[in-house]
């Protein structure tokens, strides 16, 4: 199970900064992950266009890929830049979410939230305005939330606190890098916590992961970003982890190889392995719990056994 993967990113089609460096290998990327036991992919929508791309991927891989629909806080300025105005874009986003929910291709509303680390991309007032507007849309469509929070916990929790009671399945704070206290407050609100490589960079991060209740944990890679690196605190928990496929520089790409610096879904076992080592439990326990939590919240074409 993989609840955060940006498969619509051009790098999975061999394009880097607008230049085609190697063949489109999206199918191989998905197959590699299936081969290591990853059965479901939740493809992240980050703006109106990328949400449609995520739906297109879900349509191309039925029963395997599912989409989220929403506008990332760093892209929230797109609402005011829309040729027909913010109301028209909100309407288009809502229509897209409703239709994709009905077809079974969209399972979450997001990636939405607040990011005060990157206010140079979208100022705070726009982030706040359109986070709230999208929360209203999520309530209207009745999809669980796929959330983003960076250095904004006070405003994030305030806005969510007013809206979450109207969403029975609540949602997930993905790629969590907050403090122990923030994590505990999120869990108390009924939210799940998404863990990937970025969630285990520091010793403080490790202590937070250790304390996340299993019944509120989900796992992700957030590829092509958030890879687990030897310099991260998580590396000491990967000593006996199963090996990954060989990675080469994009200029030397050949079929069957990963690309250095491009995180892939096939690395999800390392996320589960590190969490198991941190928590002192088995990998099977991590996988069983996180599968159950993801299916319970997002469905993904499965039923809880």
UniProtKB/TrEMBL annotation:
InterPro entries in the cross-refs: DNase_TatD-rel_CS, Metal_Hydrolase, TatD-like, TatD-type_Hydrolase
GO molecular function: 3'-5'-DNA exonuclease activity; metal ion binding
Residues noted as binding a divalent metal cation 1 in the record, renumbered to the chain: 111, 222
Superkingdom of origin organism: Eukaryota
Keywords: Hydrolase, Metal-binding, Nuclease
UniProt keyword annotation of Cell inner membrane present: no
Residues binding a divalent metal cation 2, per UniProt: 148, 174
CDD domains cross-referenced by the UniProt entry: TatD_DNAse
GO cellular component: cytosol
Family statement drawn from the similarity comment of this UniProt entry: Belongs to the metallo-dependent hydrolases superfamily. TatD-type hydrolase family.
Protein name, entry field: Deoxyribonuclease tatD
Lineage, highest ranks first: Eukaryota, Fungi, Dikarya, Ascomycota, Pezizomycotina
């Amino acid at each position: 199970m993989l609840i955060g993967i940006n498969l619509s990113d051009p790098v999975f089609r061999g394009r880097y900064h607008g230049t085609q460096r190697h063949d489109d290998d999206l199918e191989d990327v998905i197959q590699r992950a299936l081969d290591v036991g990853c059965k479901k992919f939740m493809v992240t929508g980050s703006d109106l266009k990328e949400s449609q791309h995520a739906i297109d991927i879900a349509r191309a891989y039925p029963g395997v890929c599912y989409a989220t629909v929403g506008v990332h806080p760093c892209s929230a300025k797109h609402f005011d830049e829309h040729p027909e105005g913010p109301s028209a874009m909100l309407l288009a986003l809502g229509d897209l979410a409703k239709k994709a929910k009905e077809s079974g291709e969209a399972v979450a509303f997001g990636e939405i939230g607040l990011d005060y680390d990157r206010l140079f991309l979208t100022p705070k007032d726009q982030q706040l305005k359109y986070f709230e507007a999208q929360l209203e849309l999520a309530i209207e469509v009745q999809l669980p939330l796929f959330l983003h929070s960076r250095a904004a916990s006070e405003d994030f929790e305030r806005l969510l606190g007013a809206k979450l009671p109207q969403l029975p399945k609540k949602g997930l704070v993905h790629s969590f890098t907050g403090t122990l206290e923030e994590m505990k407050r999120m869990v108390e609100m009924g939210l799940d916590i998404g863990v990937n490589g970025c969630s285990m960079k520091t010793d403080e991060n490790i202590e937070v992961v250790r304390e996340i209740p299993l019944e509120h944990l989900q796992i992700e890679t957030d590829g092509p970003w958030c890879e687990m690196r030897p310099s991260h605190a998580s590396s000491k928990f990967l000593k006996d982890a199963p090996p990954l496929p060989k990675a080469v520089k994009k200029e030397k790409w050949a079929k069957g190889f990963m690309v250095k610096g491009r995180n892939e879904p096939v690395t999800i076992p390392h996320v589960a392995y590190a969490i198991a080592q941190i928590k002192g439990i088995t990998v099977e326990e991590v996988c069983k719990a996180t599968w159950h939590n993801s299916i319970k919240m997002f469905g993904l074409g499965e039923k809880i056994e």
